[in-house]
Write a structure and sequence with these properties.
Elements (H helix, E strand, L loop, with lengths): L5 E2 L2 H21 L5 E7 L3 H17 L2 E7 L5 H13 L5 E4 L9 H6 L12 H8 L8 H12 L8 E5 L6 H10 L3 E5 L6 H5 L4 E4 L17 E4 L12 H7 L2 E2 L6 H23 L1
Parallel strand pairs: 1-9, 2-3, 2-4, 5-6, 5-7, 7-8, 8-9
Helix pairs in contact: 1-10, 6-7, 6-10
């Protein structure tokens, strides 16, 4: 067992990020600009409703305006895109978040692409992804940005480390892989077709679990002293790693809840404030 154990407290990291935003928000509001995040929810998925409500509450507590758009689940892709375009054209809206997932009949990628790049505060567009790959994104995907923020807050080394990412989604697995690569980690991306997954994970200095399966990553797979970042959230407040088993071998680990989740929301707020600041520069 490792001699030292770090519980990577996301609530603490999120608080630190939000504290840096207070003065920036005050500065904007003094100039007549109220940072505003528009959240779009399509349908009545209970988990999505909870996430949107949490984001709206976080905005309110920090002094950011939150505009919630709740659309019928029977809406068409074209109607959703039209709603997004209205928000693009509204100068009082600085950030747009389309809550994932949308109903299956909607072309989610087309809807994401409708979001104007300077309002893509969740980093979901292809242009935003490309900017992230080159290390120039103003708004990298929020969960990957949260993972990097946690590593930096706790001053955990990235350069030269072997990071294994389990998951390849375009808003989590892929962008966090690129962000770690840009920080000079050696990166391996694993997925549902990967052979010998336990052996590959066993080589990792940093493990990022983003597979969407409860308690999927086993403690026996983890190298002694590895850093484990659990980006999963499943029913019953269960992450993608077997927390108790992985805790034994890890040198640092994020809990679920109160790990990456709060920092993801903090990064969304940070991006919204930055978008508001950039909009002021353009006027």
């Amino acid at each position: 067992m490792s001699s030292e154990k770090l519980i990577l407290d996301g609530t603490r990291v999120a608080k630190s990020i939000k504290e840096t935003l207070v003065e920036r928000i005050d500065h904007l509001t003094a100039r007549g600009i109220l940072p505003c995040l528009a959240t779009i929810l399509v349908g009545d998925d209970p988990s999505s409703e909870t996430y949107v409500r949490m984001k709206s509450s976080s905005c309110k507590r920090l002094g950011i305006d939150s505009r919630r758009i709740h659309l019928n689940k029977a809406i068409t892709t074209e109607e959703l895109i039209a709603a997004i375009q209205q928000l693009n054209a509204d100068p009082q809206i600085h950030g747009i978040l389309l809550q994932h997932p949308v109903p299956p009949h909607i072309d989610e990628r087309a809807a994401f692409e409708a979001i104007q790049i300077d309002k893509d505060v969740d980093g979901v567009t292809m242009q935003g992804f490309a900017q992230n790959a080159f290390g120039t994104a103003n708004f990298p995907s929020c969960t990957p940005a949260a993972i990097l923020a946690i590593l930096d807050y706790y001053q955990l080394p990235i350069e030269g480390k072997h990071a294994v990412i389990v998951g390849r989604s375009p808003i989590l697995g892929k962008p966090v892989s690129l962000m770690l690569l840009n920080r000079n980690a050696t990166v391996t991306i694993c997925h549902s077709k990967t052979n010998n997954l336990p052996q590959i994970i066993g080589l990792a200095d940093i493990v990022v679990a983003a597979v969407g399966k409860p308690s999927f990553i086993q403690g026996a797979w983890i190298k002694e002293g590895a850093i484990v970042l659990d980006a999963g959230y499943n029913a019953g407040n269960i992450g993608d790693v077997d927390y108790k088993a992985c805790y034994i071998k890890a040198s640092a680990i994020t809990p679920v809840p109160a790990g990456i989740g709060p920092v993801t929301i903090a990064m969304l707020l940070k991006h919204t404030v930055f978008a508001a600041e950039k909009s002021k520069m353009l006027t």
